[in-house]
User: Fold these one by one.
Assistant:
Number 1:
Amino acid sequence: MFDFPIFEMPTIGLRMLMAINAIIHTFVSHGGAVGGSVVLALAAWWTNKRGDMAGYETVYRLLMVFFIITTSVGALTGIGMWIHANIISPNAIGGLIRVFFWKWFIEWIVFNFEVIILLFWFMTWKPKALTPQGRSSSVKLGVFYAASSWVTMLIITAILGFMLTPNFDGQPWIDPEVYPGNVNYNNALFNPTWIPGLMMRTFSSIAFAGALAILWTWILTTFSKNEEIQETKERMIKFFATIMMVTVPVAAAFGYYYLLQIPEAARAMIPTAMMTRAFADKMDLMHTIISGIGGTVVLTTIIAYFSPKRMPYIAATLMVSAFLLFWGYEERTREFIRKPFLIYNYMYSNGIRVTDVPYLNKVGILKHAIFVDEDKKVVKEDKSNLIEVGHTVAQIECRVCHTVNGINGLKALTAGWSEAAIRNRINNLPGGGTPYMAPFVGTEAEKDALAAYIASLNKRGEIK
Amino acid sequence: MNWKLPFDIPLVVPTMGLPGWFFDTLGVIVFVVHIAFIYTLIGASTASVLYNIFGVFKKSKTNDLLAYKMTNPTTISENMGALWGVAPLLVISVLYTGFFYTAILKVSPHILHIIYGNIFAFLLSYAYKFSWHALHNHKGFHIAIGLVAVLTFYTLPPVFMSMSNLYLQPELFASVQNIWDIMLTPLTFFRLINFFLTAFAFTGIVMIYLGVKWVKAGGEEAEVGRLAIDQGKKWFMWAAPVNIAVLPLVFFAFTPRISEAYIHTPFVFLPFLASAVLLILFFFLLKRFSHVEMNASDATKAMVLMVVAVALMATARHGIRVVSFEEPLQLQAEATEKYMTNVITEYKAHKEEMKNAPKVVLDPAVSLADSKGCLACHSVDTKLVGPSYKEVAAKGEAADVLIASVKKGSTGKWGETPMPPQTLTDEEAKTLIEWVLKQK
């Protein structure tokens, strides 16, 4: 990270900036596109098979909602994931693209199928709905759309799995002592959390899309002026609830299987990841909350299934919100337990590679910080630029996870600490109950400067 | 020259043995497709709002219908444009990683506008399209939605163009500090003029092409088709002349290092060639200006000429990259090699050192305290974040109390600063506290 220009996001911090995009993207693309495609294709097939033309029309209206959201918000936040990654971890995304270039290229080709089929499916639905042949070809398009959406998830979960568990049966994906790095592409792809992660995501996406479909069916049918459409409410909700009855338990089972594949050190971090550190020991509370959310999903699914008529708006909203919470936590946890690494055992969260550390400890992190002004790189004889140097060190090593004043702000975290205490803490950042923090990298002089800078944050008011 | 370049990513570029020209060609082709859709998006969304307004003022149903029909190319080109933008992004990220990311970082956070601004425009353009019939009696409101969508689309090229202009001129990494430094340059200005004029000219040809199809379909569509052909010609003929003049200028607005080197490569002919093709197309349409209907083969010819002109522009732009990147890529490779050699030497030495380091025999309690990170906040005899263990021992509280403090966290007993809860087994906590209490 030290070799790229420094961009700081005040107050909300870089991680939150990324998280906003990532969460929207996962909900919309995985929930809406991957899960949605399966659910809608099934619904189109089912209504058409039963000759239920009003139901078929309801499916079209649902498709319209999913189409609008996935092609705008979903597609662009997908590109956004890259742009955000460029800003936050250029070294990491640069490395991932070198490792996964061809897989991403294949994914892009599949994306073409996905988008073109979706455009076709949606834009030709109306003319094709008039004849039985038209409808059956329309249903086929839906099935192809679902298949291609799923393939795109297949590849992205491989990449996410790689970041968490880059080694396969102890076979390294790279030899750190060789330049340029000779990547073993197969070991990178076939990593232990790929398949479990994929399965969990597939089924939870379908379940989530089921919940979304129930909510939207409720809205669209309730506000429709057409009586026939209104009457489809009950049977459509029951149909989507049936899908959920199957997929919710399967997703939970795969979720457990996935959990077992996560490295020990990462698994130990789950409690902290789910809450904040202060909550880490309140496991009871956490279990209650999780059971509450899980229970809501299960309960609302059961209500929807056995009594679709009494699936009022509140229950449908509750169902979707519970899912959002659940998924949000799953995402957060997955991101968090990887800490302090971005790519496990290869690159720290702040973009510094593990191999870089001994060298940088010797020459200093700022020696190669190309975009930093010369007079902010080395502490002068008279120490007049001590704090500036410390500031740049903090920007380079700590800004990925810490802001100054905002979320996880260094100022508040060290309020009341003496400079000696801060210096001592920097000696052992991953210790002291914070195993998710990357170690300090750099010379002793840089450590002094960093401590002086952090200490100055809480002194600043007094000086002025 | 004051070069400031990041290191290269120290992993092999996965070319699968394919030659450089393969990736160059791939890059140009995917870019041409992408930009063709973006041209259409900008033009078609503009046309849709423009003819909607004409429809109201001229009370013309044909204009209104043309406006509605133009929402289809808008939808298709916005989806396909975004999708085909990914491929050039991927190719560039793998080949010119450092330059591309540096440019993006330099124009952050404004670059995020191409995501969030785009989503906003996308949603509005869908709202515009899908509310067409519902808002039929509220034309003012409806047109306002379309207009805001179009204007938002117009804000995207300046942002993106700034990033791309910075990326193409790595010597500016040292001096450009934010997006305005690069947006407010003659180069970005010229390239934007070129972009918008090409977009309108391109859309003119798309309208002719669609118009011919609609005329063939007959009925009410034929009327719209004739209007589209007539208007398409005008779009092209308004936009092309200035563009023909501006286009070659663009390539001389890069930094002196690039522009001067560019003159000595064959690439320099391409912008002029692109202008020439546009000129030919201009006369081709002029000859058919008074024809109300054009035949399909004329429309196809016009489309082919237009695409050729765009491809020539894209290749000329690729030429800039070739000329501009030669020296910095070389410098970057040398710097990275030197850096990585040092890194790997030091890494190996460190590993060796670790292997040979004599194992220090410590009190197991001390190593436990170290491994659990207690020593990050405590030392035996001086106060750090937390009290020294001597102080704790001197105070002499019962072991149970202290164990509870450590496991559950503690605050207020020694000062404002809290101790967060520490993850320890009962066994570990007991060992540690017994050791602490021995430190009197």
Number 2:
Amino acid sequence: MSENKTDALPLEYSTHQGQMNIVGFWIFLAAEIALFSTLFATYAVLFGRTADSPAPAELFEAGTVLIMTFILLTSSFTCGLAIHNMREGSLKGLMVWLALTLVLGLSFLGFEIYEFVHYVSEGAALGSSAFWSGFFVLTGTHGVHVTLGIGWMIAILIQLKQRGLTAVTTRKVFIVGLYWHFLDVIWIFIFTSVYMIGMVV
Amino acid sequence: MQLDEFFVTGEPLIYAGMVSIALVSATVIFLLTYFKRWKWLWQDWLTTVDHKKIGIMYILSALAMLFRGGVDALMMRTQLAFPDMNFLNSQHYNEVFTTHGTIMIIFMAMPFLIGLMNIIVPLQIGARDFAFPYLNAVSFWSFFFGAMLFNLSFVIGGAPDAGWTNYAPLAGSELSPGPGINFYLLGLQLAGIGTLATGINLMVTILRMRAPGMTLMKMPIFTWSTLITTFIIIFAFPILTVALALMTIDRIFGSHFFTLTGEGLPMMWANLFWMWGHPEVYIVILPAFGIFSEIIATFAQKQLFGYKTMVGAIVIIAGLSFVVWVHHFFTMGAGAFVNSVFSITTMMIAIPTGVKIFNWLATLYKSKIIFTTPMLWTLAFIPSFTIGGVTGVMLGMAAADYQYHNSYFLVSHFHYVLIPGTVFACFAGLIFWYPKMFGHKLNERIGKWAFWLFLIGFHLCFFPQYFLGLDGMARRIFTVGPEWFTLNFLSTIGAFVMGLGFIIFVHGIIYSFRFSPRDIEGDSWGYGRTLEWATPTPIPKYNFATVPEVDSHDALIDMKEKGETTFDRSKLKPIHMPSYTGQPFIMMAILFFASFALVFEWITLAVIGLIGAIVMMFIRSFDYDEGYHVEVDEIIETERKARRMTDDE
Ligand code: HEM
Ligand SMILES: [Cu+2]
């Protein structure tokens, strides 16, 4: 509630409200971990239950997935650079790197949509079997999160343009950054436990 | 779609329901218009972000839900009063026990407690509001519209009928076509958003907004129990979110999570449901424990015995609550090893619970007890709840549970924990803190009548059910044989006595509103120990003009000794306040619309609604409203009036 400013801290931490928003977001991420854990557990339980639809090893393509992973990891890196520029006080740097992050996020989504369409055309859709239901909902939930993240970043970019670097805008950028890195971590788990295991087993 | 498919037709009881809904709505609209109160409703309530008002709205809605759930209960007890009764047919009976259970847990117990937390927790820690007041309003409206959606089902579309546990494959689209189960799934989903948000909000509030000097181990015990409850909410509710979403996708978009076809696993629903469901029962019991602890310390006029072990016990219970879920389906046949493990974890919960019981008894031991109504509810809780706990341990023995499972023995167990635990705590807490909410006490004489009727009714209703269960009566059956007549009849009488108790309780509210003397003391009962009693009555919108320095968990006792108040003129500064806004209400109304469309599987409309909600989020993102400040002059004036100070003070 109070807006006493402390100078020693980065701008996003400079107000009590800003600090609370950041703590609150960390707690929200804890809830997101619980959410994704449940989806991973569901996926694991349903693993192999493909009924008469294709098995994952027949469809998963190492190439596409590696590209997607590479894109998303890079976007996390550019997002980190954006925060770095923000801390240095460079609005322009921040906006450029954030925009780049956004473009990478969009291309990740493009690949994911392509991948989904491909699987469906091969006879592996949401309704094909328990396994594919688990697959589409787990990766799809991640994809929806990425989509929301992109929309959110656009909103923040506009606000940065309108208002520059303030305690409020920097806090928003910082939080969307946390979100973005979090989605990256989730993707690492999807990459290993869904695609890598799916390709060998 | 035909109109007669949309509305439920052909049931006299439901026609009566429709008529009463229409009449009540018409009356409310008429009264609001006649007394020109629309503006007041919007400006003072629907747009509020004040935690005290939001808390009051939570409690009022929860009382309404208690009424609805109670009517369901009485209908069931009427049907079971005599062998082969013809009051409800089997389908209708299924619907009624489903809505009863769901409403009582999700739309009554939890919101009631969250309402009390809303009002009391910021006051107990010396905060001026929640960490995120706007989000708090979002939470309330999400609960409210979720409850509305769920309650609509019995007149529009048809009520869910697969039990509050909603087991697959029964609840799947093959065996339960139509909108009924969708109402359950989406009503809970909508309300669940709010619960999770409240969990986060309260956790940040407690962690980051305590009065100076109030370390964690100096927090009042109700605040402690709230903090731990928010922890359970944050880790349990996402599981429910996922479970509901998966079943919704199964039903509407044809996936195979819980279906019998496509190699789905119906029992996975049971696992996911109880991985949330068991923590959920602790979400509704831990705050209740906190309320009882406060009341016992207050009216035994003693410091709570074993504060640290109390905190420890809550933490251990919360941890264990995540590792016992299988005890709800020992009979699934997971095997001796799995059942034994979960049997042991289940019985372990009784240990910290026992510690708490003994701490309460030790606090009462050799104390001078003041027998107010909140204290009566609390004293009745201890032995009644213990019966529930002991029978819980009996159920926890996996081998024995093969006999008890899904019998009336189980029904009696959970009512023995939920009613003396949660419901008594809600009543006790409401009466205890009532003066802080409304500026006057509830009439004690009427309150005692309500208490005794409810208590006697409760035991009369549920004690026989243990024996019915042992005699082999299964739960969720809609007719009873003559061999079970006597005990069932007694049980039904008990239920109606409880109903009478509730009516008298409500009568007490109305009576007190008209006749109770208005409170002048901040410390209404005169025995207050914690900061909520340090505020004047009525509580100013900013709660504390100056926030006191705290150094024990009975902060007010210290302040009284030192002669301090929360109005220290030398320390006054302008106070920052958040502005009221209609956005949360509108956003959730739009989501309500989207969910309603999804219930009927009108996908286009649902998508439109969803986009609307996203637009609202964008609007919020661009909203840089900074709130306003209450100036020092205004604070002085408010405080002088609230504290009835004379001019020269
Ligand atoms: C000593 C503590 C407790 C133990 C050992 C215990 C044990 C159990 C067991 C083993 C069952 C499943 C029985 C069956 O389905 O056959 C059960 C059901 C249940 N318990 Fe408890 N319980 C305890 C405390 C509580 C508390 C504090 C609450 C809530 C406030 C609660 C609420 C419920 C509910 C709602 C059900 C049944 C739900 C349903 O099947 O619809 N229990 N309990
Ligand atoms: Cu349980």
